[in-house]
Amino acid sequence: MMVEVARRELKGWSDKGLLIRVYGVLMNLEAQRAYSKSRGWNTVYGVVLDAEGPLAINASREVFEGCDDGDMVEIVGYPTIKVIRGELKVQLDVLHLRHPESEDDQNRRKVVQSNLAALKALKPVRNVFPLQSRLSVDVIYSGASAAQVDEDFYNGLGEAAGRCQIRPVPIRITSASEVAEAIRSSHADILIIIRGGGEDVDFAVFNNAEVLSALSEAKAYRVTGIGHSGNSTLADLIADFSAAVPAQAGSHIREQLCQVNKLLGEYEGLVKKQMSEIIELSEEVESVSNGSRAEINRLHEIIKIKSSHTRNIKTLWAVIAILLLILIIK
Question: How many angstroms separate the CA atoms of 191 and 220, rounded?
């Protein structure tokens, strides 16, 4: 009863004197605008504004003119209450809308949103460091003559380089297509992607959907060291290890190889110990087996002797029986 009263009393409520300013991202404008047009309405209803949570907004087609899904907008409006499918819904009727970002900022943010959506769809998994004493390593880095990041990586790798079969892969590190192709062409145990520092725009390649897809599908142990410690890229989220700089990427491989060699040494020691114990047990089994065979042979001899005695006794009784029979006949 109370719910019905609330619906009846609050239906259509609004307060045009209570103006609210909200920032958010338009989520389903295109679909709602098309639906409104198909019904012949001048107002576009039920547009979702992502403002740290979904908020339903309504506005005229003119207010939404020039807007697209994914746009960051600032809106000013007043609250209303509507009954939709029997439920009370608090919405915002928009009076004014503007774009607080520049067109370039808007486009960059849309690209990031698109790449984030691509990353969510990929569902990448972690690859473990290979448990091998020697490894094949592909190092993707900038082929620019001024770039020295590969040397930084080798310095970090140190003496562990002798345990790696390294294949340098110099490319245009700012080209998403070249980076993606280099990743897909790699069949090494470990895949390294390194580059030096630079402007934020230079790192857009590591947020590119094509690069993220290739990196997600890679079977190798993936390490990034893009020399951009201030901000992480989406590629860093996919990588099995993300280093701040190329030298740290090399140090990580060296440390992991030391751990692997330690584990392999412990494993080999354990195997040797187990083999020694197996040999000792085999010798004990052989000894017991030899002893058992000797005991079996002794028992066989005893049986033979007793069998011989038994046959002799039977022969003696037969002779006695014959003698008795002769005596009786006489």
Answer: 6
